[in-house]
Write a sequence for this structure.
């Protein structure tokens, strides 16, 4: 008789209590997952990489210019001022054949500007290629554009931006 009373008075959780706790934890986990919005975080990460790439390209161009005591590398010098070129090794007309091709500020020229000299001279490890968003970018059409002003300033842009306005730097 005493043993029966001990079992009835024993402390523990019922199945219903355990199921309620599990349900509450699942609901909280779902709310946190929705609040973090992983798709937006991936878009932000791609935009961060694009900004970093634009900065690295422009820094390499400027360091090369300083090392050469003023002039830009030949591929930039030969580019027409105020025109926007895709950075890459494409042939004439190739920029319009990129899968899903979109640019916040589209190239005004079908030709590309090759920055391979910056890699050869050690200013860049490789010419960056934009992370794929709406378009699929390659070494031929990198997803980055370059333009120079008549006064000699250089602007590098990312073709795409997902969670920010246009990614652009000028020096």
């Amino acid at each position: 008789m005493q043993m029966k009373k001990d079992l009835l008075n024993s402390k523990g959780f019922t199945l219903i209590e355990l199921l309620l706790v599990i349900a509450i934890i699942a609901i909280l986990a779902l709310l946190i997952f929705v609040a973090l919005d992983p798709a937006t975080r991936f878009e932000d990460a791609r935009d961060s990489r694009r900004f970093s790439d634009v900065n690295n390209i422009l820094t390499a161009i400027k360091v090369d210019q300083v090392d050469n005591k003023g002039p830009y590398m030949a591929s930039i010098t030969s580019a027409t001022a105020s025109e926007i070129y895709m950075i890459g090794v494409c042939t004439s007309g190739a920029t319009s054949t990129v899968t899903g091709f979109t640019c916040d500020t589209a190239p005004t020229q079908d030709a590309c500007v090759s920055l391979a000299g910056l890699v050869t001279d050690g200013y860049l490890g490789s010419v960056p290629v934009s992370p794929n968003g709406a378009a699929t970018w390659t070494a031929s059409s990198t997803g980055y554009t370059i333009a120079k002003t008549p006064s000699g300033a250089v602007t590098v842009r990312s073709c795409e931006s997902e969670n920010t306005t246009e990614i652009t730097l000028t020096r």
Notes: The beta strands are 84-87, 112-113, 144-148, 154-158, 168-170. The chain has a mean pLDDT of 87. Residues 36-170 form one domain.
